[in-house]
Amino acid sequence: MAVASASAAGLAPALAGARAVPLFARRGPLQETGARRWRVRGPVPPPRKERRLPGAFFRIGPRPAHATIARMKRILIALLCGASAWAGATGTASSVRDREIATCLPGEAVTWGDGLDRPAPGHRVRLVYRHAGAPPWFDEALVLGALQRAASAWSACGIPAEAVREAAARTSGGDDPAAVTLVQWSEAATRGNFALANLGDHTLSLSAAMFRLLAERNPHHPASQTLQMAISHEMGHFFGLMAHSRRCVDAMSYYTNGRGETCSTRDGGSHRAVVEYRSELPTACDIARCRAVNGTKGR
Ligand SMILES: [Zn+2]
Prior knowledge:
The protein is an alpha/beta fold. Helices cover 27% and strands 8% of the residues. It contains seven helices and five strands; from the N terminus they run H-H-E-H-E-E-H-E-E-H-H-H. It has helices at residues 65-82, 96-102, 140-154, 187-190, 208-217, 223-238, 284-294, and strands spanning 125-129, 161-165, 180-185, 195-198, 203-206. Strands 2-1-3-5-4 form a five-stranded mixed sheet. The chain is globular and about 45 Å long. The structure holds zinc ion. The site of zinc ion has 7 residues, from helix 6.
């Protein structure tokens, strides 16, 4: 995911302590490149133009309005046809946010139009986790568990997914290399973000430095929640979701578009009502979009 900014608005809620600022807030032109990252601070975003990153194929900058509108219409039509009441991972809905996580109503699955969704490469997702370089308070089982929860939740899309330890990963001659993603801890690969998905390199990278900063700024914040959210979001890119959701609660959401517009909630409330409105796991709309772009019906 990506994003954010050199300003306080870009800080993760946890990093900002009691201030309810979004982890994924972003500013300026839509700049996520498919590899997404959660930046706490960083350079001014690039000018509003398209460019391609080495080894990746992500767009930076806004899409042409006509293309964006046409694509959003296609997504909406697909979602309306297959609109589901996917039972989310949260069980019984008791609040607006809970209901948003569990159900995707017609017309709700709208994106910022900042990316072009496409089917998951290989039509499956296999993640191999390398624990080296992780912060000491994240043991291997904890991170692998977060990966497996996200993989299990996303597989509701109808795309098989699994996460395994690198040590346990066996070379499979039948594996499509495009469907295997290395999950690693790397400052170089995350480039100042909490996490970054690079579809060109088939890596999902996490930043130990950012989690250390989180621990320093707010030692009471449950870092495992931030980890789960980051993993769920980045993993969504490997399922083919390149555009970011305008629905605040979606794992694939951006809270703002940098032009004064903010994400939506079902009751019109602000995502700032809670420290972090975004779901830790993919929501019904995340899954509906995934099914639509992959042509699947779910499991
Ligand atoms: Zn993203």
